[in-house]
């Protein structure tokens, strides 16, 4: 099989490429240049697409003995990921750019180009497992390493994309991947994992958004108020600097009457208001999801079914009930155990056991206890 290995410059993608090559596939490595201004790439290991990473990927490809290229997808990345990130925060929502990058770049733009060039599949270093189901469809399951499982950020992939994907690391714990990299002579064996958002140079999301959005954001300045009393507690430079569930950096000097910390409960970007209150008021019991992406067969509409859901990339799994509307166009989710700090714009990924059913973008949350649905 002719395989394009997406090589980020980290240990995972390097070992994934090596395994694909060792399995007898005709492998070509490619690194994605995602910044329109290479001079802005940070050094170190905070991100996953720096100049330093490109050089590490090239050296790994040389050790493996495969051809290597760099593809410039900076314009597409800026339009589909960076602009989306800014627009979502300006609207008071909390996006996940890694999920959007998988959907729009790595398994859309890259896969489309790979197939057009005659490749059969794209291999990445993601931690997830693919297997054929009883119905002949490709199923995606959680990886064996629960701490590194990345099925959440892959929950946007549809059946076409899964059929042309390879995840060689899903059955291996991360510690063993590093040991294997060292045995193979890959210099990235001890390279730290990437963290933060790759296009935010110093990890300061609020500062980056303030610089990029500026006057473009509605009511770039506003007030922070107590959600129960309506009392003004402070002012802010822009609602884009806050997310629901946030505790630190609120810049409010007045302590709560009970002395407990306050959390962001709601963001109103048009009015420029950030509402804060106690943690217990963050409890979410249900949510509505839009723009679903189904990994396989769409669940039956208008009936409630048991499932589990994950609401953050490294969050807990929650027992839930799912109801699909209009043949898969939107979803309702009841949480049997409340989740905290869940914000519109985040993704809900639905599981049946270890199998990923699909995902949706959270449009709204319900903080009233479950009990009315049937």
TrEMBL record:
One family name in Pfam for this protein: tRNA_Me_trans_C
EC number of the protein: 2.8.1.13
Disulfide bonds, paired cysteine numbers: 101-198
Catalytic activity as recorded in UniProt: S-sulfanyl-L-cysteinyl-[protein] + uridine(34) in tRNA + AH2 + ATP = 2-thiouridine(34) in tRNA + L-cysteinyl-[protein] + A + AMP + diphosphate + H(+)
Domain of life: Bacteria
Chain segments carrying region Interaction with tRNA: 148-150
Keywords on record: ATP-binding, Cytoplasm, Disulfide bond, Nucleotide-binding, RNA-binding, Transferase, tRNA processing, tRNA-binding
Gene Ontology MF term list: ATP binding; tRNA binding; tRNA-uridine 2-sulfurtransferase activity
Top EC class, one word: transferase
Active site feature: 101 (nucleophile), 198 (cysteine persulfide intermediate)
GO biological process: tRNA wobble position uridine thiolation
Residues in tRNA-specific 2-thiouridylase MnmA-like central domain copies: 213-277
Site-annotated residues for Interaction with tRNA: 126, 346
Binding site for ATP: 6-13, 32, 125
SUPFAM superfamilies, per database record: Adenine nucleotide alpha hydrolases-like (SSF52402)
Residues of the tRNA-specific 2-thiouridylase MnmA-like C-terminal domain: 286-362
Subcellular location per the Swiss-Prot or TrEMBL entry: Cytoplasm
GO cellular component: cytoplasm
Record function comment: Catalyzes the 2-thiolation of uridine at the wobble position (U34) of tRNA, leading to the formation of s(2)U34.
Family assignment from sequence similarity: Belongs to the MnmA/TRMU family.
Protein name, as recorded: tRNA-specific 2-thiouridylase MnmA
Species: Nocardioides marinus
Lineage of the species this protein comes from: Bacteria, Bacillati, Actinomycetota, Actinomycetes, Propionibacteriales
Name of the encoding gene: mnmA
């Amino acid at each position: 099989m002719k395989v394009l290995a997406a090589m980020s410059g980290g240990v995972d993608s390097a070992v994934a490429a090596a395994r694909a090559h060792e399995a007898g596939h005709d492998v070509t490595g490619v690194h994605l240049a995602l910044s329109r201004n290479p001079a802005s790439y940070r050094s170190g290991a905070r991100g996953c697409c720096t100049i330093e990473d490109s050089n590490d990927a090239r050296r790994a490809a040389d050790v493996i003995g495969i051809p290597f290229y760099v593809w410039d997808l900076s314009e597409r990345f800026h339009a589909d990921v960076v602009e989306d990130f800014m627009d979502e925060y300006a609207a008071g929502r909390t996006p996940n750019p890694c999920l959007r990058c998988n959907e729009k770049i790595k398994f859309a733009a890259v896969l489309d180009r790979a197939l057009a060039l005659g490749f059969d599949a794209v291999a990445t270093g993601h931690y997830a497992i693919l297997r054929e189901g009883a119905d002949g469809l490709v199923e995606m399951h959680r990886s064996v390493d629960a701490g590194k499982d990345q099925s959440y950020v892959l929950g946007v992939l549809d059946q076409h994309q899964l059929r042309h994907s390879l995840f060689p690391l899903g059955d291996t714990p991360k510690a063993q991947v590093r040991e294997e990299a060292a045995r193979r002579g890959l210099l990235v064996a001890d390279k730290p994992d990437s963290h933060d958002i790759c296009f935010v140079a110093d990890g300061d999301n609020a500062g980056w958004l303030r610089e990029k959005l500026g006057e473009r954001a509605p009511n770039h300045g506003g007030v922070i108020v107590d959600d129960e009393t309506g009392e003004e507690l402070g002012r802010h430079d822009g609602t884009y600097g806050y997310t629901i569930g946030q505790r630190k950096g609120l810049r409010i000097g007045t302590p709560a009457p009970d002395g407990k910390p306050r959390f962001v409960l709601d963001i109103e970007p048009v009015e420029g208001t950030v509402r804060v209150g106690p943690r217990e008021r963050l409890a979410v019991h249900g949510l509505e999801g839009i723009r679903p992406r189904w990994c396989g067969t769409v669940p039956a509409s208008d009936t409630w079914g048991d499932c589990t859901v994950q609401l953050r990339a490294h969050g807990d799994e929650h027992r839930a009930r799912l109801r699909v509307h209009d043949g898969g166009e939107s979803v309702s989710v009841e949480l049997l155990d409340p989740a905290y700090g869940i914000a519109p714009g985040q993704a809900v990924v639905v599981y049946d056991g270890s199998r990923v059913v699909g995902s949706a973008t959270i449009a709204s949350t319900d903080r009233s206890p479950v009990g009315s649905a049937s």
